[in-house]
Structures are given as C-alpha cells and as structure tokens.
C-alpha cells in the first residue's frame, strides 16, 4: 500500500471498498517505514521521518 495509496484518485472510497471486501473480522493495516532505518529498501520518497 505504501507505494500505491498516494496514487488513488478517491482514497476514501477505495478504502471503504477494501473494508467491504474483507472477511468478517479482517482488518487493513498501513505500515509506515521510518526514514532513519537503512534496512528498509524502499524509495526515500515513501519513508516518513
């Protein structure tokens, strides 16, 4: 999600549909990668300080 969420034209509606598609008790978890962590091999643009 970290690489795609910012691309959604309608993020609220997209998340609502994702929640509807989950199994009962399912959940969506968004993980933020710390910019200070050199072990996370994603673009600096997608890391949060």
Share of helical residues: 10-25%
How many strands in all? 0
State the low-pLDDT regions, or none.
none
Give the mean pLDDT.
82
Series of H and E elements: H
Q: Percent of residues in beta strands?
A: under 5%
Radius of gyration: 13 Å
Termini gap: 18 Å
Give the domain tally.
1
Q: Largest sheet, if any? A: none
Shape: elongated
Protein structure class: mainly alpha
The helix tally amounts to 1
Explained architecture:
This protein has about 50 residues and is mainly α. It has one domain. Helices cover about 20% and strands about 0% of the residues. It has 1 helix and no strands. The model has no long low-confidence stretch (mean pLDDT about 80).
Overview features:
single chain, 49 residues
